[in-house]
């Protein structure tokens, strides 16, 4: 039947994908277009326009960019130092970007996004369970693999239960409103991720914002919040712009003193921080003091998509009844579930991949520091190279790409004024040579542009 539909479309030369776009007519549409164009111009004028580079290969340590950079990737695959296969990039360079771009700007901390076993698990889940559920979970969208993955996530984090979402953005959007009422209070680090900020906006609890990782300020806010029924301290476990780690021990001590609960967002920690990769709470020895963990399946855990909350069973039960992004959005597709499930299996079997990433992080941080750069944070694969000046960060990042090193410069308003930086993210699948090439390129580019003497 599908063939017949395709044949009819071919004869008519039509189908959903053909024809030029239709512009809506009428005064309101014209007014809207004008307003949008002026807003877009403002963004360009402010120098905060975000453009997207198009990748024409798999996510991995070596990339090919669409339209040129990175050389031609053949069908062959090369094996990295941890036994992970990636498309080989050895074709001729084109444009000004050299062949074999080394990628230092994905959250692919463990290199599992293109791990052959992760890909195989996705294909098997796709074949066995189909493309998707065409339903939310509570109508007819729960398969055995969703329940298995939730059980695995809870076991991984040593929590009572877990609930899946389409993303961690959704997990953060859904938890505060479901849990907190106007009788309660939430205390949030000022540099928390946008999705925590939005989730908190949606709830009716009393809101307190404490200065970034400032325990005196948190204590003062906790004292103020004593009048409310329940207090929830919410923080990123690791902060993605600075590579710094929340002082969870101190936060948990204060939470105990002022009878508060602790929530952490572990998107930049799950799978690799702590002796067994359980996250910031394991790293800092407070797994039994943190009540709620939200995290993503879209970074270290296979990199596909998806998020979750794990914690006490009654909380997870309540989220299944009340959390709006869970109730009113489609189930995670089986292939995505398959990826994450296999990634967790690999991590529960061995922490060799996480150790490999830690060693490479250490190599990069120490070589860059020896070269004269300041790297923010400590022991985290997010390694922000602090430059201060926004223009310097931007031209250096561009020049790094000309040398085949893909890194991104960040400046105001993404980071505070005067604190522009180039963020480098280390992955377990970078080789030592990749790391050394990156340091060499930074040193050359830094000297050229005056960031180094
Ligand atoms: N929380 C933090 C700290 C993040 O960095 C991100 C993603 O950038 C998210 C939440 C959202 O995660 P997801 O991509 O699963 O929606």
From TrEMBL:
It comes from the Eukaryota. One of its GO terms (molecular function) is pyridoxal phosphate binding. Its EC number is 2.3.1.29. Residues 101-442 form the Aminotransferase class I/classII large domain. GO terms for biological process: L-threonine catabolic process. PROSITE patterns: AA_TRANSFER_CLASS_2. InterPro entries: 2am3keto_CoA_ligase, Aminotrans_II_pyridoxalP_BS, Aminotransferase_I/II_large, AON_synthase_class-II, PyrdxlP-dep_Trfase, PyrdxlP-dep_Trfase_major, PyrdxlP-dep_Trfase_small. Its cofactor is pyridoxal 5'-phosphate. Keywords: Acyltransferase, Pyridoxal phosphate, Transferase, Transit peptide. CDD domains: KBL_like. It catalyses: glycine + acetyl-CoA = (2S)-2-amino-3-oxobutanoate + CoA. One of its GO terms (cellular component) is mitochondrial matrix. NCBIfam families: 2am3keto_CoA, PRK06939.1. Belongs to the class-II pyridoxal-phosphate-dependent aminotransferase family. This is 2-amino-3-ketobutyrate coenzyme A ligase, mitochondrial. It comes from Xiphorhynchus elegans. The gene is Gcat.
């Amino acid at each position: 039947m599908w063939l017949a539909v395709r044949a009819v479309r071919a004869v008519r030369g039509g189908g959903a994908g053909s024809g030029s776009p239709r512009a809506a007519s009428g005064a309101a549409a014209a007014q809207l277009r004008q307003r949008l164009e002026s807003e877009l111009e403002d963004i360009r004028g402010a120098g905060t326009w975000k453009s997207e580079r198009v990748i024409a290969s798999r996510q991995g340590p070596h990339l090919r960019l669409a339209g040129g950079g990175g050389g031609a990737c053949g069908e062959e695959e090369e094996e990295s130092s941890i036994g992970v296969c990636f498309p080989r990039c050895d074709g001729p360079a084109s444009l000004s970007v050299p062949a074999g771009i080394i990628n230092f700007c994905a959250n692919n901390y463990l290199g599992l996004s293109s791990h052959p076993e992760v890909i195989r698990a996705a294909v098997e889940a796709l074949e066995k369970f189909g493309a998707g559920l065409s339903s939310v979970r509570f109508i007819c969208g729960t398969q055995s693999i969703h329940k298995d993955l939730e059980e695995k996530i809870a076991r991984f984090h040593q929590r009572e239960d877990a609930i899946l979402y389409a993303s961690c953005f959704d997990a953060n959007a859904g938890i505060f409103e479901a849990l907190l009422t106007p009788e309660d209070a939430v205390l949030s680090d000022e540099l928390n991720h946008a999705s925590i900020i939005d989730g908190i906006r949606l709830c009716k609890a009393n809101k307190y914002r404490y200065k970034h990782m400032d325990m005196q300020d948190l204590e003062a806010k906790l004292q103020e919040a004593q009048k409310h029924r329940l207090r929830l301290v919410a923080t990123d476990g690791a902060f993605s712009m600075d590579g710094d780690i929340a002082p969870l021990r101190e936060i948990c001590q204060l939470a105990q003193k002022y009878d508060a609960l602790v929530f952490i967002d572990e998107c930049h920690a799950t799978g690799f921080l702590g002796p067994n990769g359980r996250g910031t709470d394991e790293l800092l020895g407070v797994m039994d003091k943190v009540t709620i963990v939200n995290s993503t399946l879209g970074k270290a855990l296979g990199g596909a998509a998806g998020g979750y909350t794990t914690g006490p069973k009654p909380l997870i039960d309540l989220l299944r009844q009340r959390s709006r992004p869970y109730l009113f959005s489609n189930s995670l597709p089986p292939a995505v579930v398959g990826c994450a499930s296999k990634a967790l299996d690999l991590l529960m079997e061995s922490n060799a991949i996480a150790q490999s990433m830690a060693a490479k992080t250490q190599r990069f941080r120490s070589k860059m520091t020896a070269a004269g750069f300041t790297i923010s944070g400590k022991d985290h694969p997010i390694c922000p190279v602090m430059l201060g000046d926004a223009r310097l960060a931007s031209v250096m990042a561009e020049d790094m790409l000309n040398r085949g090193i893909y890194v991104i410069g960040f400046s105001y308003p993404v980071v505070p004024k005067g604190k522009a930086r180039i963020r480098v993210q280390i992955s377990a699948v970078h080789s030592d040579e990749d790391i050394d090439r990156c340091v060499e390129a930074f040193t050359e580019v830094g000297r050229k542009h005056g960031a180094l003497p």
